[in-house]
Amino acid sequence: MKRIIIICGILIGLLSAGDIPFDAYRAFTYLEKQVAFGPRVPGSPGQIICRDWLVEQSKMYADTVIIQHYKAYRPDNKTTVDAYNIIARFNPGNPKRVMLSTHWDTRPISDKDFVYYNTPVPGANDGASGTAVLLELIKHIENIAPDIGVDVVFWDAEDMGIAGNGKYFCQGSQYYAENPILPLAEKGILIDMIGDKDLEIPIEANSMRYAPGLVNEVWDIAKELGYEQVFRKQIGNDIYDDHISLNIKAGIPTIDIIDFHYHYKGKNIWHTPRDLPAHCSPQSLQYIGDVLYTWLSRQ
Ligand SMILES: [Zn+2]
């Protein structure tokens, strides 16, 4: 009897003290679910279904969930559409805080595919992958970072721009930078296109320019976890992404973890109808989830 009591005590102790590690298989189901909603293009039915689901999921774990509603411009059909940043806040009053963010919208056109140009991108990697990782991560934040504030932000209207012109890309983070929610995070990590089966993440050049200390922190954690084959310590391209307005306008030093090369058998699948779950993997979500999980637990 005594032995049973001791064993039960140990089990209860383990369950309450320990946190379940980042579950990439569960995260992958979130990636598939988003793709099943259909394209999450601002102004489309898929956007509304996905928005409501993201809010519902966020409310289960965060202290406050703020929906930032704004008007965004869609240049391909010259319409103004409704867009929604979803901001899940933990310890909302704590000024010592960090931001983790990603975009959740998908591109209205497949402009890298001349045959299917007008088909919306399914966005398994470009939209759903980062969102899936952050949806899994929010389940752990209360346990791993109880003493700091955390803002988990899902940006809308990131991917409506015209290739080669930054203006209509990243409209959600631009709106936030002009209408920030205080207290402001002291630093942040953006993730985008991190679901690719052949995941390889060089250091994005603007991240190194704006937040070199944070780049080193994150790449060192990746190395410590044995992920240096994925997180390459070499400078890659400059990418115009949601971290630009966060760095320049909002004043939040933010890095971008992004694998911009998304290919299958030598052919590009980025911004095409082939951006599907089959080209993504739970393992890739695991690399990113583990790095963010570890980074957060040390803040
Ligand atoms: Zn894109």
Produce a short descriptive summary.
The protein has 299 residues and is α/β, with parallel strands linked by helices.
Describe this structure in words.
With 299 residues, this protein is of the alpha/beta class. It has one domain (21-297): 3-Layer(aba) Sandwich (Aminopeptidase). 38% of the residues lie in helices and 20% in strands. The chain contains ten helices and ten strands. The strands form three sheets. Strands 1-2-4-3-5-8 form a six-stranded mixed β-sheet, with helices on both faces. A two-stranded parallel sheet has the order 6-7. It has a two-stranded antiparallel ribbon with strand order 9-10. α8 packs across α10. The longest helix is centred in the N-terminal third of the chain and has 16 residues, at 2-17. It is globular, with a radius of gyration of 19 Å. The N and C termini lie far apart (43 Å). Mean pLDDT is 94; it is low at 5-19. Bound molecules: zinc ion (ZN). Zinc ion is lined by residues 107, 126, 159, 271.
Structural descriptors:
299 residues; alpha/beta; Aminopeptidase; six-stranded mixed beta sheet; 38% helix; binds zinc ion
Which helices and strands occur, and which strands form pairs?
Blueprint: H1 2-17, H2 24-36, H3 45-59, E1 64-74, E2 79-90, E3 97-103, H4 124-137, H5 141-144, E4 149-155, H6 171-178, E5 187-192, E6 201-203, H7 205-210, H8 212-224, E7 231-235, H9 243-250, E8 254-258, E9 263-264, E10 267-268, H10 282-297
Parallel strand pairs: 3-4, 3-5, 5-8, 6-7
Antiparallel strand pairs: 1-2, 2-4, 9-10
Helix pairs in contact: 2-4, 2-10, 4-10, 6-9, 8-10
The structure holds zinc ion.
Zinc ion is lined by residues 107, 126, 159, 271.
